Amino acid sequence: NDIKVRDNNGVSEVYVAAGDGFYGSANATTYLGGPEFGLYKSVDNGNNWSEVNLPTLNSGLKICPNDIEIGSDNKIWVSTINSYVYGEGGGRILSSVDGVSFQTEEIIANADRTQIAVSSSNPNKIYVLAEGTSEPVLMFKTEDGFSTINNIALPNDADTGIAANDFTRGQAFYDLMLEVDPNNDNIIYAGGIDLFKSSNSGTSWFQLSHWYGGFGYQEVHADQHALAFGNGNSNVLIFGNDGGVYYSNNSGTNI
Fold this sequence. Notes:
The chain has strands spanning 2-8, 11-18, 21-22, 31-32, 38-42, 50-52, 64-70, 76-81, 92-96, 103-107, 111-118, 126-132, 137-142, 150-151, 177-180, 188-191, 195-198, 206-207, 209-210, 218-219, 224-230, 233-241, 244-248. It has a four-stranded antiparallel sheet, with no helix packed on it. Strands 7-8-9-10 form a four-stranded antiparallel sheet, with no helix packed on it. It has a four-stranded antiparallel sheet with strand order 11-12-13-14, with no helix packed on it. By secondary structure, the protein is mainly β. It is built from no helices and 23 strands.
């Protein structure tokens, strides 16, 4: 589901959020990964891997990691998704200062797949975007490391075929992207079917693109999955979606 590298006093710690899946008539031979899902770590360039112990559900079952972020204070943040094997465990947000012991910082109620984005200047400012189980999409912000957490507004896609409360059009399990500008943590980007940008921490949103160039927006292929900034440059954006790789050198104004 994700991969991140943390510099721990000159040692590259590679973390992989290994997901799971299975076919409809699942059994031991049709599992894809099966119960081996989890957070894995290597400190020797991937030659050897060890599974990191994460908090379990009250039932004792494992939770499935989805998104990994490294804070400016080098704290590791991990969010979760419902495992296919057990069908639960999503919506959890965990942290660790040493990469060994993780603790649960927040459980987003009625959430499945959960994405997080951590500020580069304030390690306690974290944005959350989640696939809901009762609401289509959920979005939150904390500025104190989850001592408090507040709802923020959802982007509203201009497309008349996309509901105002679900810019992923029922596909949050598939197209769900959230990132924060590395130089201004008030600027965040979100993706579902299309791309959106907020310059005020999610109080309001501007639509950057439309999947076929409709409604007066520039055309960018549908189903947004990833965003990277060019070497920490706020102007250079690399988007990954079902259409391939898209590039902007002016913060998304032209893609």
